[in-house]
Amino acid sequence: LDFTGRTLDQELGNGWSEGVHPDDLDRCLRTYVESFDRRQDFSMEYRLRRADGEYRWILNNGMARFGPDGIFLGYMGSAVDISERKQAESRLNAQYDITRILSESASMAEAAPKILQSICSCLDWQYGEIWQVDQGTNILTSRASWHLPSQDLAEFWSASRQVTFASGVGSPGRVWQTCQPTWIPDVTADNNFSRKSLAAEAGLHSACAFPIHRGDEAFGVMGFFSREIRKPDEALLQMMSNVGSQMGLFAERKRAERALRESEARLKLAMESARMGYWELEVDTRKITRSEGLERILGVTPGSLKSNQADFLAMVHPEDREKIRLRAERALQTTEISDSEYRIVRPDGSIRWIAGRGHAIFGSDGHVSVLLGLSTDITERKQVEEALRDSESLRRTIFDSEPECVKL
Q: With the C-alpha atoms ordered 210, 212, 214, 216, is the resulting torsion angle positive or negative?
């Protein structure tokens, strides 16, 4: 009675099979028949509806009872609520599946429909959808969906495709605005749910939605619907939030990969040169952007060096400035990678050797638009080379001046 939420009077005469989930009923009935035919104990798991409409998973162990004359008397058994265990298993399966899908997918467009299907299948939702922020109009538009084979659900998807949401409007719009998940036990009883009538026609009740986000910024929303009335599940919402963050990181990584592929020069330099300072020169404005790594090499406080070419050349050793200037001019006329070694004078007066590699990026007009480069401190290498040269010079001096030592 505690489990079902009904009184004893309500329970007496209540049709047991009417409370079993439709998807589990045939399997349960077959189990009872087999127990009767074979005179064997049985054990089965299925969902049973409570008085409040919520389905819970139970583990039912029992046996068919027969009198001394072999007459069937009924069934006797015990039932244990295993909903938490089943939910934990389902969530673990969903998380594993989502991780696998993301690892195997080349883009969010490829991964999204598979993730929708996985979440619906593992977590028992009948309909899933994805909304994405349109950068041009700054509204949420429907991008993809997955649902169980059903004409009603297909019509719900068709109608939803025509709907858009501004920030803060409707369930998807509120999730987008707040970057927080939401749960609606019954959308047909929620006056703030804009697709209330559409959901009612499709037989949908409970809904949850969560953001696809990077940090506190949402750029998409995932929503799921059930034909059952389901109470808010904070653990499930937390899992969904983690999935949204995981998808956001995936989308960001793919965006970065696309940007990297669009600039073959940057990709080549980044792969060939690790832990180097990076710089970028806009040819028209002569504005230079430097990485913090390069600023550390130059010995300046991050952000203190002005973003123009003249200030950088002022740090180059006077004996090397002309060489660097000529190499820069040559780089503007060729697609070849330019290498150079030169000295810089740090603000504290110390002199450091720098190895630089630069490359020109040509625009659609055939002119150089940007110079890209990587720099690294090679002072220690230069010191070793100088020490080797001094050692070789000393050796030659000894052997040239004392030939008898060689004979001995």
A: negative
